[in-house]
């Protein structure tokens, strides 16, 4: 790693300290499968989650929030208006919004809803797995429900181009995570296969990014800090597994490692590769 | 502690034994974030939870129940009628009802819904954090989403006055828990900061109070028994944490301690302070 | 055990290997209490869960799925159409469907909804506890919310007759599990009382059966494999409990044991009793 990566890891570290001291409020309109995990992960790193989806109150909630997380994991027609109302209000008040287009490739309903959200709301970060981001980018994808295909080739190119196209930060999670603001490309090598052995690690990553967004002026660092935190915690949790322990214990240990993540962890454990915009990707 | 506190702890202990032998059925209309934790906590102490919110069946469900828990954590317009139908039927059948006005200070929607619930339903216990109860009491509050402000001053006065005003038992949870039936004031000193490191400990406390209500003729003892159980279990779970364990393991251990809570635990671990109504508070 | 039971255990073992290599996609329309647990359990044995209930997308989702799980645990009017649309499409495409009629005896709303589902959809397996299956069979039952009565007598007769009557496989879970295709009767002796100390073990069993159904041509073996897997994992998790551990740790260990269940586990641990159709039951 060069000086630049060290600087970025230091920045991630400072952002995490900020979260712990300032306790940002993160409004979620999210799915019913992982809603509890997402709330817990926000608290685990020092934020305050609030889950609220009724159209009668989302404006009032988002007004008090430091950022807004929109996750379409169990998309229901009745929540789309709430997403748009909250998102527009967030934009108006300069509160950053992150989108997780869960399973966008699985149905026309999800695809068209995301298109509508993109028309109505300006997102600071869009985070998805390779299948989701490819679909968003207009490529043909093999989607299996809400899970990703495993083709990680060209992740960097897609992240960078889509970020440019949409004027947002794009984060693609997978074996290697690719993050771009349309200019520079950041590749995170942290991670652990066992993160796919439980549901919700993708949603939790988005909620962590949302928490970082609440205090960061630069969305790309929020995306890096959030994505890397999950990758490193995933590695550490795996190291702590003992005999006879599988995905159930892994889930508890993952939350432990997220909760105990401290200011030194990024610098000690972060594996980041940076390609500046001047370089071809 | 004086004789009176010993008697109360003994009463809590007996109530818990009753739950384990009689297995009361606790109907919940609750939020989507902690619904699983609330169900598990009821089973853990010996009750049977049933979560049902469709207006087509809440009357049939509550009719079979020993108590009703109403929690507005992820309030949705479509559930308000169900809350009222179930609450009125419970009142008619003398089935006790407990209310957790989660985040009542966060939005006008929640505030007005709670006002409506208070008009339509007679609650045996209202349990909230300091921000929620202050809001209910008509005081100006600093609310942060669904979490509390930390001002615990005057908790006793507010609990007692609000209990009088609404003709119910009021339980304020926090560093010290204040419980009053409008006459006497009970302060519980048990608790552990780490209970705030996971979502749902407030909701779970309400569900535990609801379970005690199912078998108790005196609501105030149900409120004391339920609130203290969570406080003591929170302490014990903290003592069981090992190296490298954080909020994920704490959650599992908390449920363990709730599940293993036995008839001696109240008497050994309970820290209760009683001020009888004749005394000024 | 005779040759026949050894053969069946071997078949269960092979089905599990198939799941791990082929990763079937399991569409769920399920309840909000245990939706996270059901998703995790499908991943834990090697499948991919997708939870989707909006009527705008259930046809698109089920089309991609290997099986469909319908669970009425927190039945809401708004989801009934989705269940029917998805179920009919699944039937049309020969995708197997499993039904968990949670709490069918608790309310007329649930009972009539199940009757409607039975009219519209052909189920490969119906799984319930004794109260639920008795209610479905038209017997008078003592139901307590969504939990079962404990009368296990005649389970075999009821399973076999109901299976015949509805032309489906019926699985009754309890102290002994009774499974029948209307012809033969299979009794599983595996299990552990502590499985009742947490919510969701019934729902998870149904989701596991659903995952087996995704790759099995013979529904009855999917029902046996799924039910027995939960019973054995429940036993193993109990053996792993240490001092001071209760239902919270048990839940994590149960998921561990489900996740670590391997091709030898059925053969080593399965306790199955088979009565061929020629024998009277």
From TrEMBL, chains A, B, C:
It catalyses: 5-(2-hydroxyethyl)-4-methylthiazole + ATP = 4-methyl-5-(2-phosphooxyethyl)-thiazole + ADP + H(+). It comes from the Bacteria. Pathway: Cofactor biosynthesis; thiamine diphosphate biosynthesis; 4-methyl-5-(2-phosphoethyl)-thiazole from 5-(2-hydroxyethyl)-4-methylthiazole: step 1/1. GO terms for molecular function: ATP binding; hydroxyethylthiazole kinase activity; magnesium ion binding. ATP binds at residues 127, 173. Keywords: ATP-binding, Kinase, Magnesium, Metal-binding, Nucleotide-binding, Thiamine biosynthesis, Transferase. One of its GO terms (biological process) is thiamine biosynthetic process. Its EC number is 2.7.1.50. Substrate binds at residues 51, 200. It holds the Pfam family HK. CDD domains: THZ_kinase (cd01170). Its cofactor is Mg(2+). Catalyzes the phosphorylation of the hydroxyl group of 4-methyl-5-beta-hydroxyethylthiazole (THZ). This is Hydroxyethylthiazole kinase. It comes from Natranaerovirga hydrolytica. The gene is thiM.
């Amino acid at each position: 790693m060069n000086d630049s990566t060290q600087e970025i890891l230091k920045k991630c570290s400072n952002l995490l300290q900020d979260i712990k001291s300032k306790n940002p409020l993160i409004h979620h309109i999210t799915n019913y499968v992982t809603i509890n995990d997402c709330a817990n992960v926000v608290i685990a790193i020092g934020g305050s989650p609030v889950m609220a989806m009724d159209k009668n109150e989302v404006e009032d909630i988002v007004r008090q929030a430091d950022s807004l997380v929109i996750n379409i994991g169990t998309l229901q027609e009745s929540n789309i208006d709430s997403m748009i109302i909250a998102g527009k209000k967030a934009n108006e008040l300069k509160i950053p919004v992150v989108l997780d287009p869960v399973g966008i490739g699985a149905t026309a309903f999800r695809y068209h809803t995301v298109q509508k959200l993109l028309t109505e709301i300006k997102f600071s970060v869009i985070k998805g797995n390779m299948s989701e981001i490819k679909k968003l980018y207009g490529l043909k994808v093999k989607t299996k429900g809400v899970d990703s295909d495993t083709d990680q080739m060209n992740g960097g190119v897609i992240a960078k181009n889509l970020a440019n196209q949409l004027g947002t930060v794009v984060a693609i999670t997978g074996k290697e995570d690719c993050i771009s603001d349309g200019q520079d490309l950041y590749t995170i090598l942290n991670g652990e296969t066992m993160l796919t052995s439980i549901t919700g690690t993708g949603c939790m990553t988005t909620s962590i990014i949302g928490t970082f967004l609440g205090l960061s002026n630069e969305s790309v660092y929020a995306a890096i800090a959030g994505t890397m935190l999950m990758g490193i915690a995933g590695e550490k949790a795996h190291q702590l597994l003992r005999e006879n322990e599988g995905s159930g214990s892994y889930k508890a240990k993952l939350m432990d490692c997220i909760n105990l993540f401290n200011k030194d962890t990024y610098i000690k454990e972060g594996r980041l590769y940076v390609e500046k915009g001047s370089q071809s990707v």
